[in-house]
Amino acid sequence: MSTDQLSVTFAALSDPTRRAILGRLIAGERSVTELAEPFDMSMPAVSKHLRVLERAGLIARGREAQWRPCRIEAAPLKQVADWTERYRHIWEARFDRLDTYLQQMEAKEKAHARKQRRK
Amino acid sequence: MSTDQLSVTFAALSDPTRRAILGRLIAGERSVTELAEPFDMSMPAVSKHLRVLERAGLIARGREAQWRPCRIEAAPLKQVADWTERYRHIWEARFDRLDTYLQQMEAKEKAHARKQRRK
C-alpha cells in the first residue's frame, strides 16, 4: 500500500460505494444514517467506507453536533483533477483524429452517392 | 475488488510507480526496458505494473514490432477527469472563501497601520 496523498486518494476512490457516498455529499452535509440509507449494507460496513474516505481527507466529520455530519473535503479531488490535466492533450488529440476520420468518411460517402445518382 | 471501469482505473492509479510510468509515456512510445530504466526494480516487477495498467486500459502495447512498445490510452483518464468535474464547484467555492478571508485580513492590517501612523 502506498502512503503518498495521491495514492491514498486514488485507492479510496477505487470503490463504487465510496464514490456514491461522495456523490450524495455534493448536495451538502449528511449524517451517517442518511448516507447509509440507499445502500443495502450494514452500518459497520458503511462506517468502514467512511473511515477510508476520512483517512484519505476526502470527507470530514463535524465535532460539534451529536450526529457528527459528514461533508466533502474537495482538496484531494482538486489534486486528482490537476494530475489528470497533464494527459488532457492526449485524449483531445485522439478525439480530433477521430473527428477528422469521420469527416473524411462522410465526404467519401457523399461523393459515392453523387456518383451513383449520375449513373 | 470492484470491476467497474472507473474503480479499476482508480485502483491502477493508486501506485506511484504506475503513475510515474504513465508520466514517462506522455513523451511518446517506450519499450519495457526503457520504462524500467529509472526504477530500482526487477523487470518482472515492472512487467507486473505494466500488466495492471494494460488491464485497466491505461496503456496498450504494440503487436507489430519485436520490442512491443507501450503507449498511453487516455480514454480512462478522460473518464477520471469527467468524474472529478462534478466536484470542481466545491473546491473553487472553498478557494473563493479563502480569497475573501485573506483580502479582509489585508484590509484590516492596512487600516491598523494607518491608525498607528496617525498616533
Describe this structure in words.
2 copies of one chain form a homodimer. By secondary structure, chain A is mainly alpha-helical. Chain A contains 6 helices and 2 strands; from the N terminus they run ααααββαα. Chain A has helices spanning 5-13, 16-25, 32-36, 43-55, 75-85, 88-118; strands at residues 59-61, 70-72. A two-stranded antiparallel sheet of chain A has the order 1-2. In chain A, a hairpin with an 8-residue loop joins strand 1 and strand 2 (70-72). Chain A is elongated. Chain A starts with a helix and ends with a helix. The model of chain A has no long low-confidence stretch (mean pLDDT 91). The interface between A and B is medium-sized, with 31 and 31 residues.
Largest beta-sheet details of chain A: 2 strands, antiparallel
- Shape of chain A, please? elongated
Largest interface: A-B, 31 and 31 residues
Listing every helix as H and every strand as E from the N terminus to the C terminus, the arrangement of chain A reads HHHHEEHH
